[in-house]
Amino acid sequence: MEIKIPSTDEVDAAFAHGQGATRDLVNKLIGIAETLVAQVKKQADVIQAMKVSLGKDSHNSSKPPSSDGYKKPQPKSLRVKGQKPNGGQPGHEGNTLKAEENPDHFEEHEPGHCASCEEDLSGVEACASESRQVFDIPPMQIEVTEHRVKTKVCPKCGTVNCGEFPEGVNAAVQYGQGVASLCTYLNCEHYVPLDRTTQIFKDLFGQDLSESFVLKATGKTSESVKPSEEAIKELLANGEILHTDESGVRVKGKLHWVHVASTKKLTHYAVHAKRGKEAMDEIGILPKFKGTGIHDHWKPYFQYSFKHGACNAHQLRELVGIVELAAAVGEEHDRGIVRHQRRCG
Predict the structure, then answer these.
(1) Which of 53, 79, 317, 323 is most buried, taking the most CB atoms under 10 A from its CB?
(2) Which pLDDT value is given to residue 153?
(3) Cα separation of the two ends of the chain
(4) Does the model's pTM come out above 0.90?
């Protein structure tokens, strides 16, 4: 909106035409001032909203850590100093290494000769002993089992009888279930990438696994646990309280979402290309849930009819954001007063 300020000639003309014209000019100036004030207020609101948006990250809002970029914010502890001492808290169970009653191996270390006179001590019985235990990993190597199927001819009827290979032994040379299980454990439980999983086997066992073998192993495991997964989803859907969230993850370079639904004892993860209700419906837990859902107040959750509760962790981060924003606004206000005082002398 373009605002036209009266020129000097227009002001002089208004004064020359008397009180009525002057009053009209003043009213016009008042209207212009009100318009300017409204525009400045609107711009200030926009600037304030931008400041709020730019000032938010994962430590003071519901934004995920992945949105913080390379400059990670310093975490703000909500713990009050002095409430708890440093170190392990009362009731915490330690993990101190304890001696094993039945060690796997024994090694005896006896003196061979006297340190004083060089007398041979090999035949002298020990009068005291001291023991120390070392917990270590034995040398790791692949064990190769050769299965041999034999053929026998029945001496009574002449029938040729052949033995059978165990279930799963299908190729002339192949890796066993132990290798497949460890691949799946590293890749799925600890998120070790495919190339690094194969590198681990190369370094530890001297075996050149292919990435396709790892994918095949994880695929078979996925199929085998489907009944357990469906049982977990059913238990979560029938629970009283359900915690839900979603986090971004890259799948073949594209953004996908890990949807989490959990209770104290059960957790279900599902990766989907979408984040909202479409994905939640396909996963199938929330459409059946009738209890109280605890989440971060993201809008798609409210499209379901279950009761809603706010995640305290998200609320605390939002409160931190409010406090920090108020402090920033206060500092800006104080700087503005100082600048004004300096201009006014």
Answers:
(1) 317
(2) 96
(3) 36
(4) no
